[in-house]
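Reviewer 2 asked us to include a model.

Predict the structure of this chain.
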Amino acid sequence: MYTADPSAHVFNGKLYVYPSHDFESGIPEDDLGSHFNMEDYHVFSMDSVGGEVTDHGLALHIDDVPWAGRQMWAPDAAKKGDEYFLYFPVKDKEDIFHIGVATSKNPEGPFEAMDNPIEGSYSMDPAVFEDTDGKYYMYFGGIWGGQLQQWNQGEYLGEDRYPADDEPALAPKVALMADDMVSFAEEPKDVLVLDENGYPIVAGDNDRRFFEAAWVHKYDGKYYLSYSTGDTHNIVYAIGVSPYGPFTYKGVILDPVLGWTNHHSIVKYQGKWWLFFHDSSMSGGKTHLRSVKMTELTHNPDGSIKRLNAFVEAESNK
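Predicted model (structure tokens):
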């Protein structure tokens, strides 16, 4: 089984991973990611790092999402009280990405999808962050195939509108979750990423600008926004003092992997921080057939994060 886009969480003392599920659909590659034609999710868990990994089977299938059309991309999960929530981006029957939610009494599922996507949601790559005060925030968005460039202030434009290279880059979105965890408590806001001089990262700065895969973790009282730079294939990070930002760009966490996409999550487990990501080593470099990896992540004494290579390993016999 090929899996990608791993969102890792600790629930009930166990490490759970919520990835997308790659398979060979036969759709040709293009810049919109049509070849990523995933249609279901499995949940994985382990009791210790390096220990046995359990596949808990089918957690949710696209056929069980009433409003869904195609392409179940990178999911995330959250727990509140005794209930678990699976958040997933999928195109509706008009081929527009929105973010759905499904619920379960168990972290591994199976999950039951709501009849409609989250009102006010769009684009892809949901990531839900639980702050230390008990509030939950959803970060989302991605350009190119993620369609973020086709939206403006919550209105669907139906066409691409990118900023000029010297204008501020398109920003990921953030919204406070309502108490029910299946709706937003506010209109989504832009998450600004600033350079070292306090100016927004511009659209032409492909090495640093946001592309997709926003993730937030909190360390030493500060908020760390990490994300993929897409066509330059790095995972980078920025630091702020509020879950809303702004965040100041700091550097690269993870160098490019084998394969086009780079997508990650960061979680603390058993006293250490871990970086989850994927690459295409096991499929011999097929960018749409990926496998999840993990490695220890290190925060330096000054709060910066140690840069990691991607441990790329292409097997010549596959």
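The longest strand covers residues 2-11. The chain has a mean pLDDT of 96. We have added this to the supplementary material.
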